[in-house]
Amino acid sequence: MKPIAIDDAKALIGKEIGVSEWRTVTQKMIDLFADATDDHQFIHTDPERAARETPYGGTIAHGFLTLSLLSTMIFEAVPQVEGASVGVNFGFDKIRFTNMVRTGSRIRAHFVLADLKVRPSGIIECAYDVSVEIENNIKPAITARWLTLAMPDRPPE
Length: 157
What we know:
The chain has 6 helices and 6 strands; from the N terminus they run αββαααααββββ. By secondary structure, it is of the alpha+beta class.
């Protein structure tokens, strides 16, 4: 994706600027996330028990797994700002887990540029209103206000 000029990016405030590719949430992804976070609750890691004892019909993804996938989905959907090739998380003003992601579901993220500010240091602070759509489901998995920082490239030495 071609980088975008800062003035062109500012003109997109309030508009949807990108939608990621569909991504299937697999049991393997969920199990690896459970291992990484030590969250092995059966609703995530035991398909048979989850089918028997929950209303979900099987396992569901951790909410934080779904949230963490935003880091990949933003690169698929949102152009970098010219002169700032490194982006970092700055945090979230609001996160809501509004629907569960069943194992095998496909999800994608929609990004609306809510705000963009250039700090005196040249760091670009972006706020995105993000929703994570679940295929064939009206209610999103997540809605969030995500803050990122785009760091200015170092001049050549």
